[in-house]
Design brief:
Oligomer: single chain
Mean pLDDT: 85
Number of helices: 4
Radius of gyration: 14 Å
Helix content: 25-40%
Low-confidence stretches: 1-10
Shape: globular
Largest sheet: 4 strands, parallel
Strand order of the largest sheet: 2-1-3-4
Order of helices and strands: EHEEHHEH
Length: about 120
């Protein structure tokens, strides 16, 4: 996904004052977009948002087995949320619930595709 030219401008970055952890499955371009829009990186235990693109990526599986997830303290979101937020110029106009990434065992035999 390319951001130059199709990104709405705002006075502050889209992710100002937010922190995120990114799985190794997330493309570098998406992580760069987060940082360019004034978001910060953090580890899983203190990040406001956790992003992955593959529920079966080893670091994402590890998260789903952690107390952070099992105790319902954090959820994993598909990294397409970052791309959509940048394209629309803000997080408040993108329904984050559409981007919840459940563990693989909750969607056996299905291929998840996020369509807006």
């Amino acid at each position: 996904m390319r951001y130059a030219g199709n990104m709405k401008r705002s006075r502050h970055g889209v992710f100002t004052q937010y922190t995120a952890w990114f799985s190794r499955s997330v493309p570098e371009e998406t992580v760069r977009a987060w940082l360019q829009q004034e978001g910060a990186l953090a580890d899983q235990s203190c990040a406001k948002f956790l992003f992955s693109v593959e529920a079966d990526c080893p670091d994402t599986i590890e998260f789903f087995q952690s107390s952070l997830y099992l105790d319902e303290r954090l959820s994993m979101f598909h990294a397409d949320f970052v791309d959509a937020s940048v394209q629309h110029g803000g997080m408040s106009v993108v329904p984050i619930g559409m981007y919840v990434l459940p563990p693989t065992e909750l969607h056996p035999g299905k291929c998840w595709k996020w369509i807006l």
